[in-house]
Amino acid sequence: MAEGWARHLDPEGIYLSAGIETHGLNPHAVAVMREAGVDISYHSSKTLDDIPEIDRIDLVVTVCDHASENCPVFPADATVIHRGFPDPPKLAKAYSNPEEQLDCYRQVRDEIREFVVTELPRLTTA
What is the pTM of this model? Predict the structure, then answer.
């Protein structure tokens, strides 16, 4: 969702996302992002090994604690920050109603959007 928001809100920027492990694209995340007007259906779950080699990485943002704790080492000139968000699938497990489960994804979607709108511009110009 973070890559989707970043690309949607800053189409001129170059944003890539990768995880520590691949888990597949979550259909609930796709659905709630579509509700907000952002199509992430073409995204894929990937690791750093799946990302094409890039000459320079300016900023690395980890958005879950597991990634922050297991993040690989990046070049010294890359800024690495952590901004954890709740894990929507874990939140959704507390509910049996599908709409309440989607509300968990909506909550995190909106928190990530707020981060991308307010913090990412500050971080990318620092």
Answer: 0.86
